[in-house]
Specification:
five-stranded parallel sheet, 8 helices, 5 strands, globular, binds thymidine-5'-phosphate
Length: about 240
């Protein structure tokens, strides 16, 4: 167990994931937590270069296994450079997507199956799994409509977003399946409600974890004080 907390946001494009993440981060900071925000694929210099390959339309068709391997290559870099060090320092790491996206998009969307994704995940993520994964759920047709309606995106879809509706329906089914398989850690919230109501529900999911983190860090503080006292006594004896 690390002293930090790892929270990931997931969902189809157009579900309002990034807005909700931003507001959750503001809230965490207001509560006095040190927060490290990141995104996937990307979040490191190398990861952002890999992201360009993955999302640029000019990349064209990638073999599904190549796509999966690139997602996990970027993730390996992010884990080493950002996630693990931040968790070890006791920070709250908030990531816009993480491994659940690979299960949904590559496992279900690209039909590679969960066993293949799990094999990569075991090697690359190992025990660095999120404490909480929040999936914003919305019907894929509506999500697509919202994504295209968002003028900030200049209605340009990236290579993966541009895949057909059948693909996005499989991705959503994948998200629902992951949520069913790990209900204590992976939480579904309906994105079909107001921004404020959605944020209220998200905070209600985060708060119990913050309380637990507070208790853990008090225990850790007490443990390290005892260790310090012990080592002072030992050094006086010798
Ligand atoms: P973003 O636009 O939310 O940053 O996500 C980039 C795209 O990458 C999005 O269409 C989902 C996709 N993706 C995967 O297919 N597999 C993954 O493991 C991750 C992290 C993202």
């Amino acid at each position: 167990m690390t002293p930090g907390l790892f929270i990931t946001f997931e969902g189809l494009d157009g579900t309002g994931k990034s807005t909700q993440l931003r507001r959750a981060v503001q809230y965490l900071r207001k509560c006095g937590h040190r927060v490290r925000v990141t995104r996937e694929p990307g979040g490191t210099r190398t990861g952002e270069r890999v992201r360009d390959i993955l999302l640029a339309s000019k990349t064209g068709k990638l073999a599904p296994l190549a796509e999966l391997a690139l997602m996990y290559a970027a993730r390996a870099q992010l884990l080493e450079e950002v996630v693990r060090p931040a968790l070890a320092r006791g920070q709250v790491v908030v990531s816009d997507r993480y491994n659940t996206a690979s299960f949904a998009y590559q496992g279900y969307g690209r039909e590679l199956g969960t066993a293949t994704v799990r094999a990569f995940d075991r090697v690359i993520c190992g025990s660095t799994q999120p404490d909480l994964t929040i999936i914003l759920d919305l019907d894929p047709e509506r999500a697509r409509g919202r994504a295209l309606g968002d003028t900030r995106r200049k209605s340009r879809l990236d290579r993966i977003e541009a895949a057909g509706m059948a693909f996005h329906k499989r991705v959503r089914a994948g998200y629902l399946a992951v949520a069913r398989s790990a209900p204590e850690r992976v939480k579904l919230v309906s994105a079909d409600q107001s921004i404020d109501e959605l944020q209220r529900q998200i905070r209600a999911l985060i708060e119990p974890l913050l309380a637990r983190k507070g208790r853990n860090s008090k225990v850790e503080d007490r443990k390290s004080k005892i260790e310090n006292r012990k080592s002072k006594v030992e050094s006086r004896k010798s």
